[in-house]
């Protein structure tokens, strides 16, 4: 059967587990935590032995059948933990999973996790799994669902957050559940009275390098060259690693490249990219200031910086990063700033 994440968690309270589970979705934190919950429940029910398999392109799918037929050496019950990162087992894998599901071995639970998923991934092997097992598709949260998820996460840490704090954190993390979870864990240590308001939230993230990266790209996309360069210099002086910062800039440049392909029809593009309403004016301003070719040139410069950072090209990482940030903020000067 196919169930929601909430329904799946309720099934874990049943007297025993189903023979097969498939947890699949691109919201990695949700998939990981759901799998952890299943493993914990399996251990509590006596599935003490655990065998882990990574089903990459070179995986021998006969291993699955052997794992199912092998007697447990340490316990009467066993958990087979099969990681299928792409969600695509291929012809041999689909056949192996289907065969396993048609005659699952006793006292054994097969857990399959996939961190890429869409409707196109579903096939006959998923249908075979659903007939005797549980399929849990984990879809990305919608923008309007994120504050509720954050609120529930606060509650699980015995914290009460004001509505304004919920909205602010949702805006800051922009759909990144892992970032939200990390911030909530940090706030759990800082909120001595169990309450989180906007002031505490802002103070907590003031020195966070991730949010410095957010402020940097906001300044650059807003055309504020001086402020953007001050943030770069501050991060450099604090000894921050340039690679994570470059990663966030790359994320934003790729988003701008995709948005620029939409032309004047930005409304649907913003929805497809899950861009928050409050941030749309910033992207509109940047897109109005430059054509798609500019963002592609900036992406090429980012690739050069990455090569420098990894020792494959000569140059000074922070200097080239400053040039890239200035080019993003001032497209008219880009040709001089990022010429190859």
TrEMBL record:
Which intervals hold domain DNA polymerase III subunit delta C-terminal? Answer: 214-325
Q: Name one GO cellular component term.
A: DNA polymerase III complex
Q: Which residues form the DNA polymerase III delta N-terminal domain?
A: 21-132
Name the Gene3D superfamilies on file: 1.10.8.60, 1.20.272.10, P-loop containing nucleotide triphosphate hydrolases
A GO BP entry is: DNA-templated DNA replication
Family the UniProt entry places it in:
Belongs to the DNA polymerase HolA subunit family.
Keywords assigned: DNA replication, DNA-directed DNA polymerase, Nucleotidyltransferase, Transferase
Q: Which Enzyme Commission numbers does its entry carry? A: 2.7.7.7
A GO molecular-function term, please? Answer: DNA binding
Q: What class of enzyme is it?
A: transferase
The record lists the catalysed reaction(s) as: DNA(n) + a 2'-deoxyribonucleoside 5'-triphosphate = DNA(n+1) + diphosphate
- Protein name in the entry: DNA polymerase III subunit delta
The record's section on Pfam families has:
DNA_pol3_delt_C, DNA_pol3_delta
């Amino acid at each position: 059967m196919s169930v929601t994440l909430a329904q799946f968690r309720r099934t874990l309270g049943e007297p025993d587990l189903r023979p097969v589970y498939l947890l699949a979705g691109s919201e990695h934190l949700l998939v990981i935590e759901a799998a952890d919950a299943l493993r914990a429940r399996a251990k509590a029910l006596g599935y003490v032995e655990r065998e882990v398999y990574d089903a990459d392109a070179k995986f021998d799918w006969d291993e699955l059948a052997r794992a199912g037929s092998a007697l447990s050496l340490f316990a009467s019950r066993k958990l087979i933990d099969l990681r299928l990162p792409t969600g695509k087992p291929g012809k041999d894998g689909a056949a192996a999973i289907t065969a396993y599901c048609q005659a699952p071995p006793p006292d054994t639970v097969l857990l399959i996790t996939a961190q890429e998923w869409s409707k196109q991934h579903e096939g006959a092997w998923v249908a075979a799994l659903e007939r005797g097992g549980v399929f849990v598709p984990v879809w990305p949260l919608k923008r309007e669902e994120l504050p509720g998820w954050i609120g529930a996460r606060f509650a699980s840490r015995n914290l009460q957050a004001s509505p304004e704090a919920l909205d602010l954190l949702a805006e800051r993390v922009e759909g990144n559940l892992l970032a939200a979870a990390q911030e909530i864990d940090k706030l759990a240590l800082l909120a001595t009275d169990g309450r989180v308001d906007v002031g505490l939230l802002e103070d907590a993230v003031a020195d966070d390098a991730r949010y410095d990266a957010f402020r940097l790209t906001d300044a650059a996309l807003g055309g504020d060259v001086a402020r953007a360069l001050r943030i770069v210099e501050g991060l450099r002086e604090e000894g921050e690693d340039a690679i994570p910062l470059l990663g966030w800039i790359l994320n934003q440049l790729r988003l701008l490249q995709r948005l620029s392909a939409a032309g004047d029809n930005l409304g649907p593009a913003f929805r497809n990219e899950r861009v928050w309403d409050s941030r749309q004016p910033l992207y509109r301003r940047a897109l109005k200031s430059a054509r798609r070719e500019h963002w592609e040139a900036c992406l090429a410069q980012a690739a050069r910086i990455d090569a420098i950072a990894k020792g494959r090209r000569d140059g000074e990482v922070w200097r080239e990063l400053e040039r890239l940030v200035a080019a993003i903020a001032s497209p008219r000067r880009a040709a001089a700033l990022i010429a190859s």
